[in-house]
Amino acid sequence: MARAETPLNTPISDITFTVFDTETTGFAVGRHDRLIEIGAVHVKGNRVLETETFHMHVNPERSIPPEITELTGISMETIEHAPNSLEAIEAYLHYNEKANSTIWVGHYVSFDLLVIKKELQRHQYRIDMPTTIDTLDLIGYISPSKHMLDLEIYASQFGTRIYNRHEALGDALTTAHLFCELLYHLENRGKRTFADLLAISDMSKRNIQF
Questions:
Q1: Are 133 and 113 spatial neighbours (Cβ–Cβ below 8 Å)?
Q2: Which terminus of the chain faces fewer neighbouring Cβ atoms within 10 Å, N or C?
Q3: DSSP code of residue 51
Q4: For the residues 99-126, what does the mean pLDDT come to?
């Protein structure tokens, strides 16, 4: 996938964002834990396009721990006939390409990017990783006193909708509505262009190794 560059002076309202989330067998995705679900939804014009969602379970080709099944509702039966991670990621990329969306948004997005990158590496596949926006950075800019990481807490504090937690699509939808509220606050502070958004959510400032 070739990475398309969005002009820095592009109004935020003109950009189609992909808000996404992943579920995994655990947090050690750089080693043995694997992807089991991807969910995503597009945002444009400060509006969540709920009719344009993406959701897919993924066969991790390993067992799912009981505590993960309890948390996510995803069992071995759920993923028995699901595609492998490469097939699922390719479908997700196609979903983005159809909407001409090259900017991904997530809540603690560095983890979800790591999941995608490690799964592609396992299949000896590589893509140019997209520009990303982390809602945690936007929250830190708007309300610097907030230190919790929990998505549901933030959604409650900003008065946005909360969907099924620890389900990839549910968390993506929750994040998308939170993201729209954050964009509204940014607009009120005069932050209206892609350059403004990048200055607030800059992955290069974070010491994260992928």
A1: no
A2: C
A3: E
A4: 95
- The CATH homologous superfamily for domain 12-205 is Ribonuclease H-like superfamily/Ribonuclease H (3.30.420.10)
> Token pair for residue 154?
């933030």
Kindly report the CA angle at 76 between 74 and 77, in degrees rounded to 5? 90
Question: What pLDDT, in 10s, does the model give residues 11-58?
Answer: 999 999 999 999 999 999 999 999 999 999 999 999 999 999 999 999
pLDDT for res 207: 41
Residues 6+ apart with CB under 8 A from 98: none
* pLDDT-derived band at 208, boundaries 50, 70, 90: very low
Token code pair at residue 45: 């014009």
- Is-contact 108 98, C-beta < 8 A? no
